[in-house]
Amino acid sequence: MEDNQVQVNNQIKERLEKVLLDIKNAELSSGRKEGSVKLVAVSKFNPAESVLSAVKAGQFLFGENRVQEAVSKFTEIREKIGSRENQKLKLQIIGKLQSNKVKKACMISDTIASVDSLQLIKEINRHAESLNKKIEILLELHTGEDTKSGFGNEKVLFEALEYLSNNNAPNVLPSGLMTMAPFTSDEKIIRNSFVTLRKTLEKAKIEFPNLKLTELSMGMSSDYKIAIEEGSTQVRIGTAIFGERIYT
Ligand SMILES: *Cc1c(COP(=O)(O)O)cnc(C)c1O
């Protein structure tokens, strides 16, 4: 291993520990139970080596937003770790999913966190069924002015939940909601977006009691403390662990 990569690995371990400590402090200061927020380490644009150093530091849940990148990276990673680590390793797809990538996404991942249409739910179910597999999904809601991803409004989101609640997609396991706050430094706008997601989940739980909706995936490197204050159960953090991404 090159010196440079050794340095990167040490940095990742330190940053990971700091993020975990920050999460714990945010849990406690907002009156929540320690350990109630999961960390999804977002490794997009970072090499397999970097993911491996996070695994060595005890992180097993990762998020990637491009399927092709995830396939080659996580195939390499799985070849390099032991069988116990392989069992613990979980991958979420968190980026916009095109229909021609659904099959591969179902093959490689455990969770698809960026589900934004009923059509996509049907396709995930079809591929999951043919792979004889269950896929966990999070339904993404568009909650802010300048974010474009996700179901456009509560009505279309609830139509999809209704479909799921009627057991039309038995190989798809909906576990909650996901959102991305708008890119702004205005804390009020960010907080609003998280509050919207929390309230939508509360409403969905009442309307669809047979679905086990518990997860709120919200919060990234710049806003995860606010997200935890507003009830996030999983934060998706890339930059604060792996450093600034170098887009190639
Ligand atoms: C890249 C990405 C993240 C992580 O962003 P950071 O600011 O690097 O923490 C989280 N969620 C989604 C959907 C992403 O695409």
What is the topology, as strand order, of the major beta sheet? Answer: 7-6-5-4-3-2-1-8
Low-confidence stretches: none
Q: Strand-and-helix sequence, N→C? A: HEHEHHEHEHEHEHEHEH
**Secondary structure: number of strands:** 8
Rounded to the nearest angstrom, the distance between the terminal CA atoms is: 22 Å
Oligomer: single chain
Mean pLDDT: 95
Largest sheet: 8 strands, parallel
Helix share of residues? 40-55%
Shape: globular
**Could you tell me which ligands this complex binds, including any ions or cofactors?**
pyridoxal-5'-phosphate
Q: How large is the share of residues in beta strands? A: 15-25%
Task: Give me the Rg, rounded.
Answer: 18 Å
